[in-house]
Recover the amino acids of this structure.
């Protein structure tokens, strides 16, 4: 068997490269070391192995748990944001049990029941867009996704608590809204409360305010439980595990924070990229408009989901700019051969989904935005993996996919947009996601 090549740069430099320019870092490593390589990142990753090989990714995500485990506790850098008791940070068997409690809220009829809500939120926001005024698309998409997640998760639509949670979440996320600011996630030494005006101090105070608001909402909902409500908080309050036990307030809080962060920030980023590519490439926008026009006024979740080119467009958005760059970490439980490479017990292995999505053997001209590739062939779940895979596949993927399609459909059916950025927009780190560097500046030319 073959030893895995190790990236040679000093670990502190690798960490800085990973924080400030992760796309360049991944491409440089891929070119120099091949599709499987070991990285060293000071204070964060020690001996982690990245692989973009689809066969290796398949082995990693489908292997018996005797070979690889996926403990949530390995993601400790998310703990300041999400707490200990959300589904992302739980180890087995708690993770499996919690996932079974949460999953029903994101599948089938539950997701379909949110369609009209997503459309209304989008239409109300579009109505506020002035003609011939330039605005930042990412901020607008963030507004849509935050409203959707607050209303689907909490079931609250307006009022002081809704406004306060919304305001504080935006302030909380601003801590990591640039590559440099994202250092707070990856360098624990920076997480020092030096007073109300220090970045981490402001973060801690915003977090405490959000916690108070969430606990107030939980208390009110417990005291006035209504079984017929369809929001996710209500479903979680009413859910029971195999022993008949429900979730306590801390578990509810951490799960809600996980859903707010994972469901809001990631979707806003994907929507921003969708706006960018639909305005950057007129021929793509024309095809989308032509297909959407066939629906007339019958734009509901079922009809929108049948639009083939729209589906291919959304898939290409998530291929060329996957919101997350890596799969959930796996830890080798025994000596393993991973496509001919020696993996020792305790080694951490992650699928480099960004690199997988940019393999020219899978995606010819991988840096070219081309929805047609998803109409010409089907890709396996290990070649196209924007939502991860295996036991840690994204819980909310069905809602995220539907929201992406519905919002883009409503925007293109309602108005004509012009991209105001003169240069191509590069992806840049925003927390744990890859977002458009400038946020995408657009202008409404006309409304329909």
């Amino acid at each position: 068997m073959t030893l895995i090549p190790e990236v040679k740069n000093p670990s502190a430099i690798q960490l800085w490269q990973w924080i400030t320019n992760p796309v360049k870092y991944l491409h440089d490593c891929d070119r120099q070391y091949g599709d499987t390589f070991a990285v060293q990142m000071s204070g964060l990753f020690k001996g982690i192995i990245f692989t973009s090989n689809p066969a290796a990714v398949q082995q990693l995500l489908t292997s018996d748990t005797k070979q690889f485990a996926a403990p949530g506790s390995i993601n400790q850098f998310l703990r300041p944001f999400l707490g200990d008791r959300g589904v992302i940070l739980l180890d087995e068997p708690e993770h499996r049990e919690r996932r079974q409690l949460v999953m029903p809220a994101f599948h089938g009829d539950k997701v379909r029941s949110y369609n009209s809500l997503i459309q209304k939120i989008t239409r109300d926001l579009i109505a506020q867009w002035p003609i011939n005024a330039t605005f930042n698309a990412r901020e607008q998409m963030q507004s849509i996704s935050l409203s959707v997640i607050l209303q689907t998760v909490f079931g609250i639509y307006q009022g002081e608590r809704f406004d306060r949670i919304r305001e504080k979440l935006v302030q909380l996320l601003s801590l990591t809204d640039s590559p440099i600011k994202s250092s707070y996630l990856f360098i624990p030494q920076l997480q020092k409360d030096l007073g109300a005006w220090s970045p981490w101090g402001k973060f801690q105070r915003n977090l405490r305010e959000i916690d108070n608001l969430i606990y107030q909402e939980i208390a009110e909902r417990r005291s006035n439980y209504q079984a017929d409500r369809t929001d996710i908080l209500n479903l979680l309050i009413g859910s029971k595990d195999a022993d008949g036990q429900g979730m306590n307030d801390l578990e509810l809080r951490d799960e809600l924070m996980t859903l707010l962060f994972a469901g809001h920030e990631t979707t806003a980023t994907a929507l921003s990229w969708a706006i960018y590519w639909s305005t950057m490439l007129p021929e793509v926008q024309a095809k989308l408009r032509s297909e959407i026009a066939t629906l007339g006024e019958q734009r509901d979740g079922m009809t929108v989901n049948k639009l083939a080119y729209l589906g291919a467009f959304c898939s290409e958005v998530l291929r060329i700019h996957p919101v997350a760059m890596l799969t959930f970490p796996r830890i080798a439980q025994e000596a393993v051969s991973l496509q001919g490479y020696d993996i020792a017990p305790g080694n951490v292995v992650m699928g480099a989904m960004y690199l997988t999505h940019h393999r020219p053997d899978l995606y010819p001209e991988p840096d070219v935005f081309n929805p047609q590739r998803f109409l010409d062939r089907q890709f396996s779940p290990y070649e196209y993996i924007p939502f991860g895979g295996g036991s840690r596949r994204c819980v909310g993927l069905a809602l995220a996919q539907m929201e992406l399609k519905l919002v883009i459909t409503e925007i293109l059916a309602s108005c004509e947009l012009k991209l105001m950025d003169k240069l191509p927009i590069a992806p840049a780190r925003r927390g744990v996601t890859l977002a458009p560097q400038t946020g995408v500046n657009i202008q409404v030319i006309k409304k329909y």
Notes: The longest helix spans residues 249-280. Residues 11-447 form a domain with the Cytochrome p450 fold (CATH 1.10.630.10).
